[in-house]
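Form P-L/3: holo structure prediction, ligand pantoate.
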Amino acid sequence: MQLFKSLQELRAWRAQQTGRIALVPTMGNLHEGHLKLVDLAKQHADVVIVSIFVNPMQFGANEDLDNYPRTLDADCQALAERGAHGVFAPQVSDVYPRGLAVQTYIEVPKISETLCGASRPGHFRGVATIVAKLFNMVQPHTAVFGEKDFQQLQVIRLMTQDLSLPVEVIGMPTERAEDGLALSSRNGYLSPSERQLAPVIYKTLTALADAIHQQGIDDEIALAGARHELEEHGFRIDYLELRRRSDLQPARGDDHELVVLVAAFLGRTRLIDNLQFTRHA
Ligand SMILES: Nc1ncnc2c1ncn2[C@@H]1O[C@H](COP(=O)(O)OP(=O)(O)OP(=O)(O)O)[C@@H](O)[C@H]1O
Ligand SMILES: CC(C)(CO)[C@@H](O)C(=O)[O-]
Ligand code: BAL
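OUTPUT (holo model):
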């Protein structure tokens, strides 16, 4: 496996490639969820490149940019064992040579303003901009993203369509721990007692989906029950919302393809999760 620490090295390598290339963009501190993205990417390409870049542009002023875990050596070892072909781990100065106050960025309005976008202003502008830049740097034929970050996936899908980017975007279902907790680098911030509580998030989502899908319970009543459940267990809810899957706008009674999305704090750690389900016609 090759490690490219600069754009120049990556471009020199890229110019020689003739096969189909898949990109798996990450912020590193890799876990089994990331490695499953690599497995899926391998099914769609000859060569898999994983980017590892903690993108300052998508972090708010009071967020965890400085503390975000950076574990490049361990990440490279795990990726080599999993059969990735290359890692692109550029410096911030390589990605943003004129600093972060760039003149050009990508905004995907409306879908970026709700849910995580409402709590993290500017977040999806940072995500869309870096993903477009990574697409331009790596020039992949396909790119794989996790459904754990469902809103991010939809933002990237829209951006790719709207800008006619020649990249096939593939989504992968969320990889979970045995107790249901969605794997996430930020789980590492949880204390042992918080980690024990954390699976309540997924249990609550499953119960809510079941209430609406199987029992036909009214959306608002099901949502109120789910919010109560989380708060009783000590979570501070950022949002818990039922949305239609296509554009993440509020779900109406005649919408059937739904997703329930949650962001909640356990102590100082903000966890997100979501669950897709169908409402009976
Ligand atoms: N449990 C998971 N299952 C599937 N995909 C995942 C999972 N966790 C992360 N991903 C995907 O991996 C890619 C890189 O995500 P990232 O590096 O931010 O990891 P993360 O664990 O989500 O970190 P964070 O805790 O910062 O959100 C994204 O496409 C993300 O959706
Ligand atoms: C897609 C991404 C790598 C862009 O920085 C990041 O938002 C992430 O890790 O999900
Ligand atoms: N996994 C999404 C990237 C972020 O939280 O910044």
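COMMENT: The beta strands are 2-4, 21-26, 47-52, 86-88, 142-146, 168-172, 236-244, 257-266, 269-278.
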